[in-house]
């Protein structure tokens, strides 16, 4: 073939017209999620959020002018497997960056791997800040450095302001690390505030027989039940209570699977923690409204049990925002540079502006309390963040 000057110039022009994302190797981000096992009901929400974020990120030009690929592996809700898979992501898959998995146990495993290889780890649902010793880990879960005290105080401040503050409490909890930690904190704060503890029970994570626990709660007749649950544990406990014709007067759940709790009739009135719900004032923050619209559509198409954006989806989205901000702020994939940037700068996210200059890189406790009302989560406390017209409902 004869290469004329015109043909060469035409070819050069075509090359220049190619999208920027066609140039260079993709930026590869690796993580695991509990796509199967007892934590899968919630982890599937995190998977959908990650897919949405990476898709939109690539539409904006990717990172450093390169397409972003997300490599996600199934850790089966097993922290030990998560550790092995993160090792594979770093050593065999040779990913450029890491994103944290779902749930404290798996995140702690991933954190150990990240520390071994000096990788930044942004994570979204780590519930025990005191264990986050690694200087290059960054939480999107805005619990503050001492949630064992601050979170229960938020719960009991709300109850103290109600028309009929509870006088007695039952604490029933999973031994899942972050859940157990938070429940022991709630137990301590309740005692300091003068609530009489009428029951304290624990169960092993993975338990499916909640009948005996339900019976013990019913016999104790508490005014308020603190349920230290994660995933579907709370639903199973409420189902067991229904079978013995018992409905707790007021019940709080630490980390319930958001969709199943709203879809269950027994979940009506359930209380839980949140950092974001899809109503004002939250949807007025940055790109929150656009994300809510996209998530609603994609969640419906994926047949998720709940198509709403709430605490889990928001935490996951926030983690991706933090990681993107670190790369853009440094114009680099260098983990140490990214970590230094995140520690020194506040990052705008859909849950607000986050800082990482406190103990173990934690900033402020931004937790709010929400309640299932009419099949939807609505923030009820603090009142300045409450959904329009929403107030704490008590039986």
From TrEMBL:
Keywords recorded for this protein, A-Z: Amino-acid transport, Signal, Transport
Gene3D superfamilies, per database record: 3.40.50.2300
Species whose genome carries this gene: Ramlibacter monticola
Transmembrane portions of the chain: none
Leader sequence segment: 1-22
GO BP, sorted A to Z: amino acid transport
PANTHER family cross-referenced by the UniProt entry: LEUCINE-SPECIFIC-BINDING PROTEIN, PERIPLASMIC BINDING PROTEIN OF ABC TRANSPORTER FOR NATURAL AMINO ACIDS
Name by which UniProt lists this protein: Amino acid ABC transporter substrate-binding protein
Domain Leucine-binding protein residues, every copy: 26-375
Protein family according to the UniProt entry: Belongs to the leucine-binding protein family.
